[in-house]
Amino acid sequence: MKLLRHGPAGQEKPGVLDSEGSIRDLSSYVGDLSPDVIADELKNLQALDIDALPKAGIAGMRLGPPVANIGKIVCVGLNYRDHAAESGMAAPDEPVLFMKATSAICGPNDKIILPRGFSKADWEVELGVVIGATARYVTEQQALEHVAGYCICNDVSERAFQLEHEGQWVKGKSADTFAPLGPWLVTADEIIDPHDLNLWLEVNGRRYQEGNTCNFIFNVPQIISYISRFMTLNPGDVISTGTPPGVGMGQRPPVYLQPGDEMRLGIDGLGAQSQHVVAYS
Questions:
Q1: Which of 18, 64, 117, 162 is the most exposed place for a label (fewest CB within 10 A)?
Q2: Cα–Cα distance between 122 and 141 in angstroms, integer?
Q3: Which one, of 29, 70, 227, 11, lies nearest residue 1 by Cα?
Q4: In whole angstroms, what is the distance from residue 125 CA to residue 221 CA?
Q5: Which domains does the chain have, with CATH numbers?
Q6: What is 74-112 written as a DSSP string?
Q7: pTM of the predicted protein model
Q8: Whole-angstrom Cα distance, residue 90 to residue 99?
Q9: Which residues contact 97 (CB under 8 A, 6 or more apart)?
Q10: Residue 247 contacts residue 85 (beta carbons within 8 Å)
């Protein structure tokens, strides 16, 4: 099932994608795709006859982030060996964790707004894991039982803020619009193996990133189990699992985002995103 939210920012309505690519309205069943709905109503939604639901909207309608009121985004850094190498960093012995502010969340095709003082804005296509059941001290064997589904994340980053200023990575990761999510939350039953998904990202039509989640250093069960040792993962929380090689910082010479650039990115079975880059004004 491909769940989504559509409509103007702050006024999104819940929907589902049918087999022909049309949006069907879920408003008569749930008010929104909130964490409570993800936790308690997902099986009921999956039992619906999608083709019997009313069609919603028109072609080109804005899509919002597929989950409302996300509590937190936990990110895993350097989780592909070849990306760690291009970053000039050793492969970590345990997952590198950092947070991304929820105020950075936007829709999959919304504009990316580069913040004041930007100089090294970068891209990162990532597999997002959406938590569906409270996870606290879970084992790796139990971990996937806590997954509602998967989505695309673009972990947009300002590298100068991230790496050249004092403190943690979070300030280079959290500008408004730096966390496009979606287009859909694809329920876990549709993803046979989250460790065999192709990822790609293009800027202005040039393919920069191409990888596969089989190259994770730490797989999804390991990541969920590890994070749940240090914090409770709640329904609707998102884990962004790291990016394959090909980021702008890793190019020789480096290539960074500029106003007017166009990004496209996608993951097998999870759809694609498209973003126009502008400067803050």
A1: 117
A2: 35
A3: 29
A4: 20
A5: 69-279 (3.90.850.10)
A6: EEEES-BHHHHHHTT-PPPSS-EEEEE-GGGEE-TTSPE
A7: 0.97
A8: 21
A9: 74, 75, 76, 77, 227, 230
A10: no
Structure token digits, residue 53: 């639901």
Phi, psi of 43, deg, nearest 5: -65, -35
Q: Report the distance separating Cα 98 and Cα 173, nearest Å.
A: 9
Place of tokens 């990016």: 243
| Token pair recorded at residue 102 | 């929820």
pLDDT tens series, the chain, 281 aa: 999 999 999 999 999 999 999 999 999 999 999 999 999 999 999 999 999 999 986 667 899 999 999 999 999 999 998 877 777 778 899 999 999 999 999 999 999 999 999 999 999 999 999 999 999 999 999 999 999 999 999 999 999 999 999 889 999 999 999 999 999 999 999 999 999 999 999 999 999 999 999 999 999 999 999 999 999 999 999 999 999 999 999 999 999 999 999 999 999 999 999 999 999 99
Closest to 24 measured CA to CA, from 16, 36, 13, 12: 16
